[in-house]
């Protein structure tokens, strides 16, 4: 499941995962298409920030991913101030 949260003047992609693992393929495609390099992932992982790189058809796509634990989902807009 994926949502997009919007703040005035910017869109922040949010990836929602039911487990701690899983691929982020669609997130990387979005980042490549929109030339966006920051996103939020809601999952069972603890809070943290990761710099991820993925190759799509020879293009390297980099995303700064902020991990937000599922229990903090109702406060997700507080994490958008990091962008």
Structure description:
The structure is a single chain. With 83 residues, this protein is of the alpha/beta class. Helix content is 17%, strand content 47%. It has 2 helices and 5 strands. The protein has a 5-stranded mixed sheet with strand order 1-2-3-5-4. The longest helix is centred in the middle third of the chain and has 10 residues, at 25-34. The mean pLDDT is 83.
H/E element order = EEHEEEH
Tally of DSSP helical segments: 2
Number of structural domains = 1
Strand order of the largest sheet: 1-2-3-5-4
In whole angstroms, the N-to-C terminal distance is 22 Å
Total count of strands = 5
Overall pLDDT level: 83
Bin the helical content.
10-25%
Quickly give the structural class: alpha/beta
The shape, in one word, is globular
Strand content: over 45%
Uncertain stretches of 5 or more adjacent residues: none
The largest pleated sheet is described as: 5 strands, mixed
Q: Quaternary state, please?
A: single chain
Give me the Rg, rounded: 12 Å
List keywords for this structure.
83 residues, alpha/beta, 5-stranded mixed β-sheet, globular
SSE order and pairing:
Elements: E1 2-7, E2 10-16, H1 25-34, E3 38-43, E4 48-56, E5 59-69, H2 76-79
Parallel strand pairs: 2-3, 3-5
Antiparallel strand pairs: 1-2, 4-5
In short:
It contains 2 helices and 5 strands; from the N terminus they run E-E-H-E-E-E-H. It is an alpha/beta fold and 83 residues long.
């Amino acid at each position: 499941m994926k949502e997009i949260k919007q703040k005035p003047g910017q869109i922040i992609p949010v990836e929602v995962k039911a487990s701690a693992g899983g691929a982020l393929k669609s997130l990387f495609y979005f980042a490549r298409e929109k030339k966006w390099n920051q996103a939020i992932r809601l999952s069972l992982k603890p809070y943290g920030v990761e710099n991820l790189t993925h190759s799509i058809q020879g293009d390297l796509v980099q995303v700064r991913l902020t991990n937000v634990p599922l229990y903090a989902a109702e406060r997700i807009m507080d994490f958008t101030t990091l962008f």
